[in-house]
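User: Structure please.
Assistant: Input sequence and predicted structure:
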Amino acid sequence: MRAIVQDRYGPPEALRLDEVADPVVGDRDVLVRVRAAGVNPLDWHFMRGAPYIGRLGMGGLSRPDPRTRGVDVAGRVEAAGKDVKTLRPGDDVFGWCSGAFAELASAGEGHFVTKPAGTTYEEAAAVTVAATTALQGLRDMGKLQSGQRVLINGAAGGVGTYGVQIAKALGAEVTGVCSTRNVDLVKSIGADEVIDYSQKDFTKGAVRYDVILDNAGNHSLSSVRGVLKTNGTLVYNSGASMGRIAAAQLFSRLGRNVRSFLATTNHEDLLILRDWLESGKLHSVIDRTYPLKETPAAIAYVEGGHVRGKVVITN
């Protein structure tokens, strides 16, 4: 099969399209013909091998292992191991795996759920990491409840666009913060109020929020905490700056109202996201699509930091 491989950490030029062996399919695994794969910030972190300490979780200090990257995936089941019970060849699925930037991918049965018929492969492939991050940040870290007021900083990015919709699905009143060119987009996905950060600094406003999900990390921690309600919670996701995350971890240990986290993909949350896709509560915002051979350019574009929603690789 064809796959994007990487033998050294570095810039997009370290990636190349090559012929590799098909994935091994275990007794509890399914083999998926990849139709689309989502690109996430973690993909360029893995490509660069940065931060250096993160290489311990990337498979190797000196070189990447596995060689093929990509996590978010959507496609059609080609084969299923003998112990697989819920999926069969021909099923359209989406979920997560190791090595999505390829023509075929294999992972355990629990890594996938069936794709809603009305959702395209591209829309489904965009979901897993970003929407799971938004869901866990709001529901688990922020303890967001119906009727509460939430602000999402960086509302036009991957996590942000899902965060606005998930907060609405949870019954919250949502304020999104974004650039001028993205105001209409953020309104269109359900935000009750949109703040154009070039016109107004949300940290200097009079409104106080129950939960703030900060995907940008572009304000001081103290200034953002200043617009929280007394018992409110500030949540930094893993895409915020390392300095902000370190400070959040310190405040958390001191029992303060600041949290940081790394999302954990799991089957239960994937089922929730699938149901919201099917009901129309959740939509994927796709900025651009790239063919498999142009994966290096796609990752470079995401690394640039101005993506509206998600970037997707297609096969």
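The first helix runs from residue 41 to 48.
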